[in-house]
Amino acid sequence: MPYSQKSELPDSVKDNLPKHAQDIYKEAYNSAWDEYEDPDDRRGDDSREEAAHKVAWAAVKKKYEKKNGKWVSKKD
């Protein structure tokens, strides 16, 4: 189910990612939720929710990386 606000994100996201990264996660998740409604559009046998979470984490990892146990913005 799509997230309407950051407070609805899973604890693993809210408790670990900076606010901007949470925005990225939420927007990517919601977009993927819409895009992968049809099971034929997904790879493997992932559920719609699993596919959306994978897309969201991939989007976060484009701008953020984990260093010393904390998520920090990547340097350009």
Descriptive notes:
- It is a single chain.
- The protein is mainly alpha-helical.
- The protein has helices at residues 11-14, 19-35, 48-63; strands at 64-67, 70-73.
- The chain has one domain (11-66): Rna Polymerase Sigma Factor, Chain: A (Orthogonal Bundle), CATH 1.10.1740.70.
- The protein has three helices and two strands.
Number of domains: 1
Remind me, CATH topology? Rna Polymerase Sigma Factor, Chain: A
CATH superfamily: ChaB
Structural class: mainly alpha
Give the class-level CATH name. Mainly Alpha
- The low-confidence parts are none
H/E series, N to C?
HHHEE
β-strand amount? 5-15%
User: Strand order within the widest sheet?
Assistant: 1-2
* CATH architecture descriptor: Orthogonal Bundle
Binned, the helix content reads 40-55%
Q: Based on CA inertia axes, which overall geometry fits?
A: globular
Descriptive terms for the model:
76 residues; mainly alpha; two-stranded antiparallel ribbon; 3 helices; 2 strands; 11% strand; globular
Q: Nutshell version of this structure?
A:
By secondary structure, the chain is mainly alpha-helical. It has helices spanning 11-14, 19-35, 48-63, and strands at residues 64-67, 70-73.
Secondary structure layout:
Layout (H helix, E strand, L loop, with lengths): L10 H4 L4 H17 L12 H16 E4 L2 E4 L3
Antiparallel strand pairs: 1-2
Helix pairs in contact: 2-3
